[in-house]
């Protein structure tokens, strides 16, 4: 879709946890790095800023992860690439089948991928030391800062 912008949230889970996202079954997530791929047709900044807040009603699968104390969005990447191909290119391991993919027609399996314990190359090292790294990365990607 021409007006659709894809975003990727790079999330660091400080310790293992068990979550249940909506109607999906409980799953154990190991500590480490995750990437969530989503898209927005309009109000991209508002959508991503909502993801960055902890205090919110749980509406999407990602909300069940991002409202946890252990989870922190460290980096945000915006792309004009289509959501599902970008998700597939990202690689990583699917730990929660169906997560964020209820409207997916490309058989992605999940839009949340586990990337392991090492910082992904897509995440700048300085992001680890920022107070609100996700919000700053979003503003930078939108051209509002730096």
From TrEMBL:
Keyword vocabulary terms for this entry: Endonuclease, Hydrolase, Nuclease
Keyword Nuclease: yes
Molecular function GO labels: endonuclease activity
PANTHER family per record: ENDONUCLEASE III
Designated name of the protein: Uri superfamily endonuclease
Origin superkingdom: Bacteria
Database matches in CDD domains: GIY-YIG_COG1833
InterPro entries found in the cross-reference section: DUF123
Record's keyword annotation contains Hydrolase: yes
Organism of provenance: Alkalispirillum mobile
